[in-house]
Amino acid sequence: MDIFAHRGVSAHYPENTIAAFQAAARLPIAGIELDVHLTADKEVVVIHDETIDRTSNGSGYVKDFTLQQLRTFDFGSWMSPKFSGETIPTLGEVLELFAGTNHRINIELKTDIISYEGIEALVLKEVAAQQMTERVIISSFNHESLQTVSQIAPYIESAALFAEVLVDFTTYIALIPAKALHVSLPTAFRKSVKLALAEGAIVRVYTVNDERHARSLQQLGIHALFTDDPEKILLTLS
Ligand code: G3P
Ligand code: CA
After folding, report:
1. What residue stretches are annotated with the GP-PDE domain (predicted)?
2. 154-212, pLDDT tens digit by residue?
3. What region does 182 belong to: left with phi over 0, alpha with psi -120 to 50, or beta?
4. Which atom of ligand 1 lies closest to the CA of 6?
5. Are the C-beta atoms of 192 and 164 separated by less than 8 Å?
6. Is-above-0.95 flag for pTM?
7. Separation of alpha carbons 114 and 149, rounded Å
């Protein structure tokens, strides 16, 4: 079972920052997960929320700032003063960080609340520029975004995110089409997920931070989990 560092090593570093991704790059894990939004000047930036309020010393919507304006805010101090000076990374900067490793990069398009016209093409352009097409997984809760991805780049691995259970995952993801399903931990043990696994679907589970669940998922035959604390889960499964 593969391990993905969720928003980087976010248990110990400020989520979705270069510090959190550098920590992940040092670990023998399969990959990382990150979230992207679009700035006012159409730069793809790595941040989880639509606003910068929770994870910076600023306030407001990502979409209302230019990249230059966003760079003036501190994205590390909210967690600890020792991380002060961390800035918001662009997608390109994070991809560059992993240029010399074998880690897979799961880019989650955060288009479920704000649609961000053209974000799919911009993300795919960055991935192609870094020659990372084969290492990237593009996921989203907004499955229309995944349809757009599959129209532009049918060869790229995409994954449909689900917070809740569907009766027939296999038929549904074939329609998008998406290659994998990423399900929440509370739904991972449901009959329909087991059926999808038996039918050959790639199933990854978010967000798994305790040892007991990690071991149960491994027994179930899940392909990967997303965790904030990859070192802890590595130790559990070793
Ligand atoms: O991609 C899995 C997981 O990250 C989805 O939920 O809210 O952490 O982005 P969230
Ligand atoms: Ca995410």
Report:
1. 1-237
2. 999 999 999 999 999 999 999 999 999 999 999 999 999 999 999 999 999 999 999 99
3. beta
4. 4
5. no
6. yes
7. 17
How remote is the CA of residue 89 from the centroid of ligand 1, in Å?
18
Across 87-111, average pLDDT:
98
Q: From the DSSP assignment, how many helices (H) and strands (E) are in the chain? A: 9, 9
Check: CB of residue 54 under 8 Å from CB of residue 77. no
What are the structure tokens assigned to 6, written together?
A: 């969720």
Q: What is the pLDDT of residues 140-159, one digit of tens each?
A: 999 999 999 999 999 999 99
Burial 134-158 (b: 16+ CB within 10 A, else e): ebbbbbbbbbebbbbbbeebeebbb
Q: Which of 226, 227, 228 best tests ligand 1's pocket when mutated (most atoms within 8 Å of CB)?
A: 226
Helix, coil or strand: residue 43: coil
Q: Where are the domains of the chain?
A: 2-237
Whether 206 lines ligand 1, by a CB cut-off of 6 Å, is yes
The answer to whether 199 and 220 have CB atoms below 8 angstroms apart is no
User: Which of the residues 12, 48, 143, 182 is marked catalytic?
Assistant: 48
Residue in the block written with tokens 């730069």: 43
> What ipTM did this prediction achieve?
0.99
- 6 is annotated as an active-site residue: yes
- The CATH superfamily holding the domain 2-237 is Phosphatidylinositol (PI) phosphodiesterase (3.20.20.190)
3 state SS of 162: strand
